[in-house]
Amino acid sequence: MNTKAKGYIYGSIAAITYGMNPLFTLPLYADGMNPDSVLFIRYLMALVILGIMIRWRGRNLRIQRKDILPLAGVGLLMACSSLFMFLSFLYIDAGVASTLLFVYPILVALIMAIFYKERLTLPTATSIVLALGGIGLLYRGENGVALNFTGVILVMISALTYALYMVMVNRPRLREIPTVKLTFYVILFGLSVFLVRVDFGTSVCLPQHWYHWGNLLALALLPTAISFVATTRSVQYIGSTPTAILGALEPVTALFFGVTVFDERITVRIASGVALIIIAVTLIVAGGSITSYLVRFRKMFPKLRKKKSA
């Protein structure tokens, strides 16, 4: 198997495993757990898994004192994104919530354009319009009934905090920290949010049935550790842009499990909204490449000169 094929496989694994969040979360809610307890145990387990990964690679956990504040900042942003996302599952279908979340690349582009003066290109502007259209379609459920307003707001806050995380984690200082170690400390500082929300462990709701511990372990392992490792490998093999495009599989995966496992309804309106958002995100992460491909395609059909009349 060549390097390119491996990259696409790793990228697909990364996106699909991250899209499994609702698959393991909703049964835990049905078993009596609340979002704070699920996230606290998920972050704690993921921290252990990443710690084992770091030690297995023969690396240490030492960081410089000046790295503590920026790591704490991105950790809190990630924790807030997770919290608002998991809270939204209580109000709207998980598949729709996961799809709405995937507007975060659009928000990243807007943040970079407004605060870092990056040029807003035509593909970016087009993707924003398409994404807004997709959200508009998703906002109306079956028979024209609007989705729960609280749920939509929670997802939008989750998307915004994740977009801020994506911008801040790419700053020069944090880019110098090895990726696995960076993620370890992001989860460590993020864990503090849920530690406070569960009253330092005194109000943690544990699953009523022992087999749901498997869901908790899967939640920490698949959408966290494995998804992260696969994303890193994919970027190494095929680059960040193709990996990001493959990330469009995340909401599709979540919607797939929502429909097949949890009997969530999918309508033409919802399917159209999903399609618009995926097209929008694909445009924004591959705008330059798409433009160059369109130029090449146009050159294949040169304009024919009209013959002059006699």
Distance between the first and last residues' Cα: 62 Å
Number of domains: 1
Number of helices: 15
Number of strands: 0
Mean pLDDT: 82
**Unreliable stretches covering 5 or more consecutive residues:** none
Strand composition percent: under 5%
Which short descriptors sum up this protein?
15 helices; single chain; mainly alpha; 310 residues
Would you mind describing this structure in some detail?
This protein is an all-alpha fold and 310 residues long. It has one domain (3-106, 148-267). It contains 15 helices and no strands. It starts with a helix and ends in an 11-residue tail after the last helix.
Q: Would you spell out the secondary-structure blueprint of this structure?
A:
Blueprint: H1 3-18, H2 21-30, H3 35-56, H4 68-88, H5 94-101, H6 104-115, H7 122-139, H8 149-168, H9 172-175, H10 179-197, H11 213-238, H12 240-246, H13 249-260, H14 268-285, H15 287-299
Helix pairs in contact: 1-11, 1-12, 1-13, 2-11, 3-10, 3-11, 4-8, 4-10, 5-8, 5-13, 6-8, 7-14, 11-12
Concise account of the structure shown:
With 310 residues, the chain is mainly α.
